[in-house]
Design goal:
With 275 residues, this protein is α/β, with parallel strands linked by helices. 28% of the residues lie in helices and 21% in strands. The strands form two sheets. It has a seven-stranded mixed beta sheet with strand order 3-2-1-4-7-9-8, with helices on both faces. A two-stranded antiparallel ribbon has the order 5-6. The longest helix is centred in the middle third of the chain and has 20 residues. It is globular, with a radius of gyration of 18 Å.
Length: 275
């Protein structure tokens, strides 16, 4: 069993605490089917040749950093190679700081745990985690794998994340001190989809054109069937599959994870869980 990163150091008064959605992402990404998919897509080729470049793994909305830490610390196990670069983005500055510590702690824990000595050299490399608005600060077509656990709860609106201050005659965006920073992690606006819709619009431009793939978590109220159909209407080479489900017996917060990828690469488009 792959260890879950510790978040004991995180201030959950300011940062989203890992919950069912976070653990569903961990379980889905480490399932045998997805490990096979990720290894084939990003690991060394069967003939021993290395990939052209190290995969760039980006989590949008890192929160505590538990998912980013899981992917980074267990890179060799999940991707078949330790040669991954990871990057975190969150609109909450406290989440950015927490996620860096979570990743560093997870990688150090693997290195010092004798039970995982063989994998201590299998951790990836964290570039940084920075404050930003979705993928706006990321270069086009550079992301190989994107993970997004969005603010998916239907609400009357999406909280104002940024206020504009004028410093030395220039306008700068800063986190609105009067806003509830935790509401940024769950308030999704109409159908819980206002933020997710923006991210979906950005996927075609930010994902690597050859091997880009995204994992996006949705709840029942987000109308995931409509999201799936929308992606399919993008046409070839896009593929979308459900690769994780949770909460089948409880309330409206039934969760599922969509894997969205460009289908020209080997293995893309294979459904790896049972309906």
């Amino acid at each position: 069993m792959i260890p879950t990163p510790s978040t004991n150091h995180v201030d959950f008064d300011r940062v989203y605490e890992p919950a069912e959605d976070s653990y569903l992402l961990l379980d889905s990404l480490s399932s045998p089917g997805e490990v096979s998919f990720l290894t084939e897509r990003f690991g060394p080729r069967n003939n021993g040749d290395a990939r052209i470049s190290s995969p760039l793994i980006v989590e949008i909305g890192t929160g505590s950093g538990i998912v980013l830490a899981f992917l980074t610390a267990h890179a060799k196990t999940l991707f078949g190679t330790p040669g991954i670069l990871s990057l975190g983005v969150d609109i909450n500055q406290y989440a950015c700081k927490a996620s860096v510590q979570t990743v560093e702690t997870a990688c150090q824990s693997i290195a010092h745990d004798s039970r995982h000595a063989s994998s201590s050299r299998g951790t990836g490399f964290l570039l940084t985690s920075f404050t930003g608005d979705l993928t706006s600060a990321i270069r086009p077509e550079t992301v190989d794998l994107l993970v997004f656990n969005p603010p998916y709860v239907p609400t009357a609106g999406v909280p104002t994340a940024f206020a504009t201050n004028e410093v030395n005659g220039e306008k700068q965006a800063v986190l609105d001190a009067d806003s509830d920073v935790l509401s940024l992690s769950y308030a999704g606006g109409m159908d819980g989809m206002e933020v997710t819709n923006r991210l979906l619009e950005q996927l075609p431009s930010v994902l690597n054109v050859d091997r880009g793939v995204a994992y996006i978590l949705l709840c029942k109220q987000n109308k995931p069937d409509e999201v799936t159909q929308r992606v399919r209407e993008w046409g070839a080479p896009w593929k979308v599959d459900v690769v994780g489900r949770s909460g089948k017996h409880g309330g409206w917060e039934k969760l599922q994870i969509l894997r969205i990828c460009r289908g020209s690469y080997p293995s893309c488009g294979i459904a790896l869980i049972r309906e």
